Structures are given as C-alpha cells and as structure tokens.
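TICKET #2291
ISSUE: user wants both folds in one file
ATTACHMENT 1:
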Amino acid sequence: MITFLEGKLEADWPGRLVLNVDGVGYEVFVPLAGDGAFGQQGQTTRVLTHFHVREQEQTLYGFATEDSRELFRLLLTRVSGVGPKVALSILSGMAIDDFKQAVVSGDATTLAKIKGLGKKTAERIILELGDKVGVKEAWQAQSGAASLSPDQAAQNDALLALLSLGFKQNEAQKAVKAAATQGTAADEILRSALRMLQS
C-alpha cells in the first residue's frame, strides 16, 4: 500500500494533482479544497494517500489531513453504494466537522445538498455509519472534546481510527478499554488495541 507521497508538485488542477517523486510523476485525485491546500506548484509537498485497486484500474487518492483520509476510508468500507468518487464528492462538498454533525443529528437534507449525493444515499450514510458502525457516539464525544479529559479524548481518537479500519464497534470499544490501561496517548492505545484485535 502507498501511504503517502512526498515530492515536487508539478501540476495542481481542481480535483487532481501530479507529484514528481524522484522522477516519477504520480497522478493523485484529491478533494476540491482551497488554493494551496497541497502547497504551491514547484514546491516539495507531502500528500497522504489511499491506493484503490479495482479490476480495470489502480487509482491514488490524496488528502491533506489524516481526518479526511479516515473519513474517506470509512465511507468506502462501511457505506454500501459509496465508491471513491462519491466519497471524494462528500469531502469536496462539506467540511468534515459539518458532515459529522449532520450524521450525528440525522440531517439527511443537509447531506443531500452535496453534489452527486441524493436523499436516499444521504439516509443510507446516516443509517450505516450512525446506527450500524456506531460512529455517532464517538463523533458526539469528539465534538464535545473540550469537556473530555485528555485520557478520554485519546481513547475516543483510537476508537475512531479502529472503526475507520473496519473493526466492529463493540470489539473496538473493548480493545480500546483494555489498551487504555497500558498507555495514555492515542497512538499507544491504538497500537495495543490493534495487537489485541489481531491476535
């Protein structure tokens, strides 16, 4: 898997860019973002990636932040009927925090305003992410992060990361709870929880 690319930004068009990494040009599809989200043309930049393989094509999708890549992967793996193009439209059409708030509050009308997303798909996203995967509670806790202790915030971050990797909510919660006794930082909890879930 290609986790990130670091190289010279050769071209930056709406929705895609070309990165020159040691003489190899990589075309990367990205969410529509403000100018300069990936740096200026000619400068060295780092792009977080998701390598998507299908029968007829292999495509790189790029992200400026870990949050946007996690949400992209969560949509791909957990919502039926949502492919990379729709997931990219969601990231292009709404700020991540606004998207999470719409899912938490069950606001399908707001989600349906995103280009390429109809009301049925918006309702499916709310049902499958909120009710089946169980990210609602974690996103609610994240939005009220100011009231969370540092330990609770770290556990919540680790839980969201496990959900985006495809683990079931109840298994992920148990692993995070057990792992929290061994460390307090989110990355320590995540590593310990992953070891438990994969053993």
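ATTACHMENT 2:
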Amino acid sequence: MNRNETMMQYFEWYLPNDGLWWKRCAAKAENLRDLGITQVWLPPAYKGTSQADVGYGVYDMYDLGEFNQKGTVRTKYGTKEEYLEAIRAFQEAGIAVFADIVLNHRMGGDETEEVKAVSDSPEDRNQQIGGEQTVKVWSKFTFPGRAGKYSTFTWDHTHFTGTDWDESSKVSDRIFRFTGKTWSPEVDPEKGNFDYLMGMNVDMENPVVVQETKNWLNWYVRETGIDGLRLDAVKHIDFDFYRELLQSIRSSTGKPYPAVGEYWSGDIERLLHYLDMVENEMSLFDVALHYNFFHASEADSSYSMKTIFDGTLVKERPSLAVTFVDNHDTQYGQSLQSFVEDWFKQPAYAMILLRRDGIPCVFYEDYYGNPAQDRPLVPNLGKLIKLRKSYAYGEQEDYLDDDHIIGWVRRGDAEHANSGMAVVLSNADGGSKRMYMGPAFAGMEFYDALGYCPDRVFVDEDGYGTFSTDAKSVSVWVLTAARDDLVINE
C-alpha cells in the first residue's frame, strides 16, 4: 500500500542519564505508529567515553551496553538487551529502525603510544605549522572489559591519521598529523580540508581499517536487526568510502539497507557533489532547507517566502532529500546551534510534512517539548503528522507567488478516502489565496483542520477555492467530510 513515509528523530541532546531511554522507546512504539510515524532514528547505541556520553564520543562499537567499560555496563540509554527489545517493539508496530552510525573518530583510548607527527593549523589543515616531533597520544584501544568477545581487533596509531591532543605537553592548539599520513583528499573543503573532526581520526584509507569497519557493520546489522542507517559526519570521511561500504553491506546481506547521511553544509552544490560522488547510494539531510527555515524565522516578515525552497536539496534532488526543521545539533548550546524560532516552527513543519517531495524527519523535542531546557512543543505538530498520514496525497500544485502568503494544493488519490488538501501560510499579515483544487472537488466543503480559521470554504464549479490563513500562521484545509479523528494519543 502506498503510504507517506515519516521519520522521527527519537532523542535529543539533553536526555536524562538514567538508563531508561530504550524502555521509553519500546513503550511509545504503538503510539508513534498510530500517529503516522513509519521510521525512527535512534541515538548511537554503543559505548562512549562515559555513561553520560550522548553516543558521539565513540569508544567501543561492539559494546551496546553489555560490558563493564568506562566505568559502566549500560550506556546513557540502557543495556544491550533493552536496546534490542526497543528495536523489536518498533518493528512489531510496523516502524523501521534507523541506527546512528559514527565512524569518523574514536575517543577514550585505553593506552598511550609515542608517535612522530607534524602540526597542522586547525583553521587551515593544508598549512603545516610545526615540524616533526614525538607526541604521546591515546591511540591504543584494547577493550579489556570486552576481552575479545565478538571481535579480537584492537586499534593502535597505525589505524589513525591524527589527533589534537599531546598527553606529554598537554597541547591542544593544533592538529597532530602522524608522520607518513595525509588527510583524505576528497572531503569537505571547509578549513582547507575537513578530514579531521575530533578525537583520534580514523584512517579510512587504511585497508585494514576498511575491512574491520565492514566486519563490524555486518556484525551490527545481524546482531540488532536494524532496518536502516543514519550516517554521521559524512563530509569528514573520504567520499568513496560510504559508497563502497553501503554496496558491501547490501551485497553481503541481500537487503537494501536505506541510508541517510549527515553532510552539514548549507551549500547545495556541496550536497549535490557528494551525492554524485557516492553515486546516489544514500539520501542526505536537507541542511540547506534547515538554514532557509532558520534565516526566515530570524528575518521575520522581511523574508521573501517565494524563495523558501531555493537552493535546497528537496528542490534540486527531491528523491534523495530528508527534510527537517531542527535536530540535536541545532539545539541551544550545541556547536551547530541554529534553532528555528518558535513562531516559525509550525509553518516550517507544514512545509516538510504536507508536501509531495522529500521524507520529513520530526525532531523529538519539537513533538514532546523539553521542560528541562524550557522548550515548548510545537503546537499542532501531532495533527500535522496525522494529516500527512491520512490526506497529503496526489498531484501537487504550488502557489509560491507572494513574498508573504504562499500555499499549495494536494488533489488526493483514489487509494486514500477523502484525501487532498489546501495549505496556506504567512510570515506576515493574514490573508487568502485562490487555488485550484480541480473539478473533482466542485461543490465540496473544506474546513481548517488546525482550527485557526473558523469559516468553511466551498470549492466553486470551476474547481477553485479561496483559502485563508491568519497572520504568521498556517492553515490546512481538508474536506469537512474527512473529519478523521485527529486526537493524539501520547
């Protein structure tokens, strides 16, 4: 059956470190299914540098909360068995599980090694600022708590290209590139060469490392039964790597394993270049669209809504775009902070949930709110998700023809009863748009499912209707006869 795929990022940065997250996930699976969520992206499940690690300070990728390492058996989110139970609960509810995969770096090494290295500038990694010296680095990962279970592979300095910390001198104002190593040539050009991000930088041009990574991923998908991959920080890894890795895992398992990569750049040309280099083997998060939303929310009514989709992945390569409003990296206090202002959140979600192109990804904090950070939930977000599930089908016609009031129609299809809708939104004063629903809707009555505009709209005999919205708001007009139960079961 044709359905609208909708992903939810089911975590945020500031979750409590109480080890109960996987249990909370399992408990919500059926609610999310009923809402209209078809995919969930879960946080990194493996052992980090401490129990409080969100999952991106990767220590041991074979430890999913099973071994006493870094002072803890469980991770921030719980134990391995609880993780597997959460995956099963989602899958039994018909929701595909995407695992967060972080391959670029390792942190929290077990032992130091003395290594010869040169110094490169953190701001221009192509500029060497220091000659060869001996540095002491945390490059040995022996995983004593796991004692060789699942894999006997251990890491040393030959498996890395560099780091930013010398334990002997306590210096961290430069990047130490190990003698005989070079940064990968085909990575994002920010900072001259953005191969290095943090910690011990994994050398993806080392064939031993590549083979171990393939071995680990094969183990991981077999061990967990996950359905898809969210690939972290792809712009920092040689662009050939993920094409080969994804082809390998699909070949070895005989399963498609959809993947979405995080290439953090608002430059559409960089996103398109990356997709070309990986031969479209993955989707990408539409960071360019996120920045359009962010800038529109800051600019208020001075932003021209006619341009909201310009320079975005969902416009240029819609079949490979995963659209989003915000995520854990854009939250307040994070390194990529660019949180879309509250007043614009609801229109932004309408623009990713109710349009034809792209797979939308809903952020956990936007749906549930976050009292600990004094963050409100986005009003009517649950209704927008359910409206997508039930009515956002069929041919789309855009009315992106005004600086402040824009809209589009979806004309429905035969497979989904009473489907079709008209969407109007504004970043300034309220108003209306005359839009063509088509002769199939002639004489039919529409109402604003979000409840902002109380009047009804009748489509005329020529198939046109005049649909309104309030100031700095969005209205979603659906057939009055289609009054689906929009009560959200939390």
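RESOLUTION: both attachments delivered.
EXTRA DETAIL ON ATTACHMENT 2: The chain has a mean pLDDT of 96.
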